[in-house]
Amino acid sequence: MKITMAHGSGGKSTSELIGTIFEKEFSDPTLSKMEDSAVLPGSGRIALTTDSFVVTPLFFPGGDIGRLCICGTVNDLLMSGAEPKYITCGFILEEGADTDDLRKIAHSMSETAKEAGVRIVAGDTKVVEGKGGVYINTAGVGFVPEGVDIGAENCREGDVILLSGNLGDHHAAVLSKRMGIENTIVSDCAPLVEMVNAMKRSGVHIHAMRDVTRGGLGTVLNEFAASSNCTIELQEESLPVSDQVRAFCGVLGLDPLYMGNEGKMVAVVAAEDAEKALACIRASRYGENAAVIGRVLAGDSAVLLKTPIGGTRVVGPLYGEGLPRIC
Question: Which helix (DSSP H) or strand (DSSP E) does residue 297 occupy?
Fold first, then answer.
């Protein structure tokens, strides 16, 4: 069955679409009430995020737009130190979208939400003229424990910088699919709940965290350096990149420092906790390739890369578009 304008009318076709796909896959008692808003338990400090997902193609090696939208929303909440709890999702469907594809996307969202320990509690569906596209907007709510203060402005001289795994996998997987390049690179699209919780439970003093998405690691670290007015020094030899992605970059002239990821985070921690933090991440799902990649120095905001031959390269933020519609 194909999506028609009737599915966006708010009538029987809309109800059938919601009931046979979204309600069935998401299966949440609050969502099933079909109210205009969800009333949910919780108190104290909350973290709120919103994001829109327009990736093309909808399905790519290692994931799809459904898994991507849950991972992206959950990871944004985690990076502020919040415990993700609730997600809403709004679907904008172009006429001609395939309901079989939509069912796969919804199922992927459901399974990823279960993995991340969050509930999809509200949603909306609109249909517009077009050529069969699917776009998803999400909002996410999490609760921030008392005493947690994690932010880009908290980097301090002597802090150690960790990266949770290989750079560039998502970017390379999506671009390969678009260009018809055959390889075995798969997206790193993943929720990072386990590794963040492991660090928090172990008492690691986390000063800053960020998931490394559009703009890549270089852009994220420039934002840290500017917010904390510090210098960040990276060791090029310590940056984890798979052999396949490195070769892919060599062919297309890409730099892993500016490639998007959807299942990697950078964490800035107190020096005395660096080894404990690294062990926590490596022992967690999706963190087996984690590495210490640099440190925070005194100085004006800058990011420097020490090369294997002893040189120093200034790493600026990404300029230009990068790869569009990667998430």
Answer: strand 291-297
Average pLDDT value for residue range 48-68:
96
CATH of 5-144, one of 1.10.150.170, 1.20.1560.10, 3.20.110.10, 3.30.1330.10: 3.30.1330.10
Give the orientation angle of helix 65-78 with respect to helix 193-201, to 10 degrees.
20
Residue 9: per-residue pLDDT:
54
Express each pLDDT in 101-145 by its tens digit. 999 999 999 999 999 999 999 999 999 999 999 999 999 999 989
Nearest to 122 by CA among 36, 18, 48: 36
- Give me the CATH topology for the region 152-314: Phosphoribosyl-aminoimidazole Synthetase; Chain A, domain 2 (3.90.650)
- pTM, to two decimals: 0.91
Spell out the residues 6+ positions from residue 74 whose beta carbon is closer than 8 angstroms to its own: 84, 87, 116, 118, 140, 191, 192, 193
- H helix or E strand, kind and range, residue 99: helix 99-116
Greater confidence, 257 or 34?
A: 257
Residues 87/117, Cβ–Cβ less than 8 Å = no
Q: How many helices and strands, by DSSP H and E, does the chain display?
A: 9, 13
Domain boundaries, the chain: 5-144, 152-314
